[in-house]
Amino acid sequence: MQDARTEQDLLIETFDGRARRRENRRAFFTAALGVAAVGGAFAYADPALAQTSVTDSDVLNFALNLEYLEAQFYLYAVNGTGLTSDLTASGGGSAGGTVTGGAQVSFTTDPLVGAYAREIAADELAHVKFLRTALGSAAVAMPNINISGDANGPFTAAARAAKVVDPTSGIFNPYASPTDFLLGAFIFEDVGVTAYKGAAPLLSNKTFLEAAAGILAVEAYHAAIVRTTLYSKGVQGLIDATEQIAAARDALDGTPTEDKVRGIAPNDDQGIAPSGSGDTLTANLAPLNSNGLAFSRTPGQVLNIVYLNAGTATMGGFFPNGVNGNIKSTT
């Protein structure tokens, strides 16, 4: 017999029955940790999150913070303006934060990249709208975001750490050209893929799990577009830059014990440098482990990267005052 419940009923069950779900989730995480201890292949254990009884709305709000960041970056690059205020306020109506930086990119010299940018911007806007609708009154407001391309901005800080520019005086402005835009996008996209993959097992509601898997797939498409376009330019300097950025991200997110089935590894990042030569030349457009699986990052690891801080932190980098919601610390 077809389930007659409406989507509204589903949301009410998901977000209002917190006391019962909280107990269920405690049991879930206890089981997950136990299975992980004996080598369970599909258990996801993040003790810091397990101890705080993470809810589905916590996980979706964590994702919403990341979507706010990506949407603002791409919308500014395409239009010179970002999200409207009605899309940055909390579900309860509290005003959203501010955006520092952001500028329109001139794609005249590379209209194909411009077409890609417009598609990705539209996708990220749709993700923000979707997550806000799913969360309803539980949606967090957009936090303060810094996407500046100036000397004191997070893009420059990331590029200096990766030695893509001079570590002391170099400036990286992702809005200066289509190629610089691609490198700026490269900083975000692979992180988004690993973030959704790592957070998906924390969701207990299968409807939201399927939706998260759908967003993960889109983020993977975006990452593939960026990686393929950079690779196709055939510029060794760009290939080297992706390797340096990947190494810098790897240095920020710690060294978890490797689990090849779950896609967890101490080295969970790769640039686009090919292997082999001549007839054996093989591209590296999909960063995967030896089992052909995408990598996972815990929410804490993701925050290490967007905060540009390898230690314990609750703010910094692209989120100068931290993200909003219950998942906000790197630990």
User: Helices and strands, in N-to-C order?
Assistant: HHHHEHEHHHHH
Strand count, sense and barrel status of the largest sheet are: 2 strands, parallel
Cα separation of the termini:
45 Å
Tell me, rounded to a whole number, the average pLDDT: 88
Strand order, main sheet: write it out.
Answer: 1-2
The DSSP helix count reads: 10
- Integer-rounded radius of gyration: 20 Å
Helicity, in percent? 40-55%
Number of domains: 1
Low-confidence stretches: 14-45
Give the DSSP E fraction (strand runs of 2 or more residues): under 5%
Shape: globular
Strand segment count: 2
Structural class: mainly alpha
Organism: Sphingomonas endophytica
Protein name: Ferritin-like domain-containing protein
Keywords: Membrane, Transmembrane, Transmembrane helix
Pfam families: Ferritin_2
Walk me through the topology.
Elements: H1 7-16, H2 18-37, H3 47-50, H4 56-79, E1 99-101, H5 111-135, E2 145-147, H6 154-162, H7 178-199, H8 206-232, H9 236-252, H10 299-306
Parallel strand pairs: 1-2
Helix pairs in contact: 4-5, 4-7, 5-8, 6-9, 7-8
Task: Label this structure with key terms.
about 325 residues, mainly alpha, two-stranded parallel sheet, 10 helices, 2 strands, about 0% strand, globular
Report on this model:
The chain is built from ten helices and two strands, in the order ααααβαβααααα. Residues 14-45 have low confidence and may be disordered. With 331 residues, the chain is mainly α. It has helices at residues 7-16, 18-37, 47-50, 56-79, 111-135, 154-162, 178-199, 206-232, 236-252, 299-306, and strands spanning 99-101, 145-147.
